[in-house]
Amino acid sequence: MDAATLERICRDVYRKYPEVNGVHPRSRSNDAGGTVLIFETCAQTADGRPMRRTVRVTLNADGRVLKMSTSKS
Prior knowledge:
This protein has one helix and four strands; from the N terminus they run H-E-E-E-E.
C-alpha cells in the first residue's frame, strides 16, 4: 500500500473515531489478498477509568475500505 492511500484511510478513521487521532496503525494481510489496519489506543471514561479502544479497517487488494469496526474493552 502506498503512502497516499494510507494517509487517506487514516484521515477517514481519525474523522470517524477522534480518540485514535495520531495513532499509527499496525498492518496485517488477510486471506483474501487485502489488508487489515489496526488502530489501538487507551482513552479515559468520564469517571477516569482507562478504556482500551481498537479500530479495525479491512481493505481490499486495491486499497478500498470494505469495513470499519470498533471494539471497547
